[in-house]
From TrEMBL:
Protein's recorded name: Exodeoxyribonuclease 7 large subunit
Catalytic activity line of the entry: Exonucleolytic cleavage in either 5'- to 3'- or 3'- to 5'-direction to yield nucleoside 5'-phosphates
Domain of life: Bacteria
Keyword presence, Transcription: no
The species this protein was found in: Pannonibacter anstelovis
Family classification: Belongs to the XseA family.
A GO molecular-function annotation: exodeoxyribonuclease VII activity
Subunit: Heterooligomer composed of large and small subunits.
Gene it is expressed from: xseA
Length: 537
């Protein structure tokens, strides 16, 4: 506050002074209040605070919930919800506005809670979280059951006692608060925690989850109406039983669960069968199975004996096949001999047709026939030309010059055309014959043993000129004639592995040739007489 002006006795304030003075006055007058109203605009910035409006039919009150108080709220603010807000009224000097700092928020009676519950139910149902097709069947006999509940209440003791009486098995308890501000978040974390356990891990993964709590008022059970709990139950991959409250109580998790139990004890009875009843049923089935098997075996034995009596003796069954087998065995040797002779004959005929001498003879005949055709063609052309000349000379005296000249011109043109056609025909025929002759020459060359000798092989003959095929046919001292690609050499068989010295056809000595690599056998090709040529087949 500044001093008064000389012209006035009114005190002067700065903006900050008057703003903070109003702030203190307002906070002193309304230190801690409860305000009832409907939630209007709600804003959730990244800072974590919540800014909202409390309104009625005539006024609007701005409010803020600081980040530290948001997690402690019993209910989360939703637009249109009628609530009772507890906190203090203060100002925000930066904008010259007053607002309420809310520390606690609760619904304004059961009617407001039911309205909120119906609105949330319609919203989640529209997303399909309560659809029947999402429900999963419960396992008949789970090995491990997970229970999400308070570890100190009577509910868990009732569940464990009932499971122990009916069918003892492994039970895992996920401790949570079943009432209060953090109830919804803890129950949702428990459901997701059981689903996150790996198969075969240190902590066994449950085959069934039970979410249980005893009875209570709507406010007491409100945590199980939390949207996070409903979504966790709908997303659970493990079948889930909801056992919240008594039979007359219902919550949103009952609609999202795979099955709703009227009480926690009823959930335990649904989860596991009675072991004694199962044993009795199994014993009855085992007894019926044994009796049925005995009756079946007796019936099959009777049918088998009847079928065996109608069957003939084994020796009678085998008599005819044995006789056919003996007959076939007798004909087998003779048939093999005939078949072998037939194949040998066919092979010898084919060998005779494929000898180089036959191919050479056919090639010579074709060449001679082609030469004769060429000579006949030349003679025929000469005779034809001479005959035409004679005819022209004979009629030239009887013809006048003009027609004669015309006929001579026409005859010359026709003769030229015929000569051209005859030349082309003769040339074409000559080319065809020459191509066929070249083909036969190549075939003869490919079948000749001369081509094999040019690749480093040798043809060894005895003194009588016959080719040698077996080393046993050439004892020591045998004179040999070895034909190579470049000529012939003589050799003599001696004892040991070292070959005897040899001389070429001109008499000079040469070192022994290296042993050639084995190669494919090729038909020999030579112009020598057939008597001096060995067969390579």
């Amino acid at each position: 506050m500044t001093e008064a002006s000389p012209n006035s006795n009114i005190a002067e304030f700065t903006v900050s002074d008057i703003s903070f003075s109003i702030k203190r006055t307002l906070e002193d007058a309304f230190g801690y209040v409860r305000v009832r109203g409907e939630l209007g605009r709600i804003s959730r910035p990244g800072s974590g605070h919540i800014y909202l409006d409390l309104k009625d039919d005539r006024s609007v009150l701005s409010a803020v919930i600081w980040k530290g108080a948001v997690s402690k709220l019993k209910i989360q603010p939703e637009q249109g919800l009628e609530v009772i807000a507890t906190g203090k009224v203060t100002t925000f000097p930066g904008q010259s506005k007053y607002q309420m700092v809310i520390d606690a928020l609760e619904p304004a009676g059961a009617g407001a809670l039911m309205a909120l519950l119906e609105e949330r139910k319609r919203k989640l149902a529209a997303e399909g979280l309560f659809a029947p097709e999402r429900k999963r069947p419960l396992p008949t006999l789970p090995r491990v059951i997970g229970v999400v509940t308070s570890p100190t209440g009577a509910v868990i003791r009732d569940i464990l006692h009932r499971i122990s009486d009916r069918f003892p098995l492994h039970v895992l308890v996920w401790p949570v608060r079943v009432q209060g501000e953090t109830c919804g978040a803890e129950v949702a974390n428990g459901i997701r925690g059981f689903n996150a356990l790996p198969e075969g891990g240190a902590i066994p993964r449950p085959d069934l989850i039970i979410v249980a709590r005893g009875g209570g008022s709507l406010e007491d059970l409100w945590g199980f109406n939390d949207e996070a709990v409903v979504r966790a139950a709908a997303e659970s991959a493990i079948p889930l039983i909801s056992a919240v409250g008594h039979e007359t109580d219902w919550t949103l998790i009952d609609l999202a669960a795979d099955l709703r139990a009227p009480t926690p004890t009823g959930a335990a009875e649904i989860a596991v069968p009675v072991k004694a009843e199962l044993m009795a049923s199994l014993n009855d089935l085992n007894r019926r199975l044994s009796a049925g098997l005995l009756r079946l075996v007796a019936s099959r034995r009777t049918e088998l004996r009847a079928a065996a009596a109608a069957l003939p003796a084994p020796r009678d069954l085998l008599a005819l096949p044995r006789q056919r087998f003996d007959f076939a065995a007798g004909n087998l040797e003779r048939g093999l001999s005939v078949n072998t002779r037939a194949h040998r004959t066919r092979l010898m005929r084919a060998e005779a047709l494929l000898t180089p001498l036959t191919l050479a003879r056919r090639t010579t005949q074709a060449r001679d026939r082609l030469t004769g055709l060429e000579e006949r063609l030349a003679r025929a052309l000469t005779v034809a030309i001479a005959s035409q000349a004679q005819r022209l000379n004979a009629v030239s005296g009887r013809l006048t010059p003009a027609p004669l000249i015309r006929q001579i011109r026409l005859g010359q043109e026709r003769l030229g055309t015929l000569s051209t056609r005859l030349g082309r025909t003769g040339q074409q025929l000559t080319q065809e014959r020459r191509a066929r002759l070249d083909s036969l020459s190549k075939l003869l060359k490919s079948l000749s043993y001369k081509d094999v000798l040019s690749r480093g092989y040798a043809l060894v003959r005895a003194a009588d000129g016959q080719p040698l095929r077996n080393p046993a046919d050439a004892p020591a001292g045998t004179l040999l004639s070895i034909e190579l690609a470049g000529g012939q050499i003589s050799a003599e068989v001696v004892e040991g592995d070292a070959p005897a010295s040899s001389s070429t056809a001109s008499g000079s000595t040469v070192p022994p040739a290296k042993k050639p690599r084995p190669a494919k056998a090729a038909a020999p090709k030579t112009d020598a007489p057939a008597s001096s040529q060995g067969s390579l087949f």
